[in-house]
Design a protein that fits this description.
Elements lengths: L1 H11 L1 H14 L7 E7 L1 H7 L1 H9 L1 H19 L11 E7 L29 E6 L3 E11 L12 E4 L23 E3 L5 E12 L21 E5 L1
Parallel strand pairs: 1-2
Antiparallel strand pairs: 3-7, 4-5, 4-6, 4-7, 7-8
Amino acid sequence: MREVILVYLDRSGGLQKFVHDCKKYNDSKQSYAVYRFIISINPSDIAELDATLGNYILHNPLQAAQIFQSVCFIAIKTLSLIEQLQTEAQISILLKPTHLPSLPSYVLSLSAYPFNYTSQRFYMSEGIVIAMGTVTKYTQGARFLCTEETCPFSEGFRCIRVHCPGATESATVRNDFVCSLCSSPLQEDMKFRVLGDKQIVEMIDAKILNALKGYSVDKSHFRIQAFTLFLR
């Protein structure tokens, strides 16, 4: 799969964008615990190159991102793109599909049953935005060091916390993490914290427009409830 990913990135122009993003990180004077890359993915093009990889991206995007993470780490080290990068865990990959298959199973509708809350894959959702919050900051990644000076984890980038989709802020940064090697408390190195923008949006199903059509012969009752999205 790694070879297919390299071929796709080269053909789609993603490799050139990746090198450009690496150059910005390398030229920056800011310290980073995590280097975040957004990779645009065309599922149709991927499936033509390798159907297994295409299916993996659509239905197991978090695991697929780990394969992209490995490819990007090897590329950075081979081409010496980011001098400060030390470990593969410092790379955060966000796969952004250009579109999804036009099939009912890829449409997330909160008014349709059954719900599939356990699936962590891509969905399309259509609705009307009724409220938007202000743009605030959240932690994309942070570096922690062991407080025991003799522990190998007291230096370097052995303890990296990276935000995962659906996780709260406390899952990334808090003060009760312990070292997995010696069980001593971990302390965050604040100068390496990486922040990103997030915005809360409240949406309502597009079917609400049916209620604005006036009189209807349909006597059935229905209730429309808004749902909240976190844009990161």
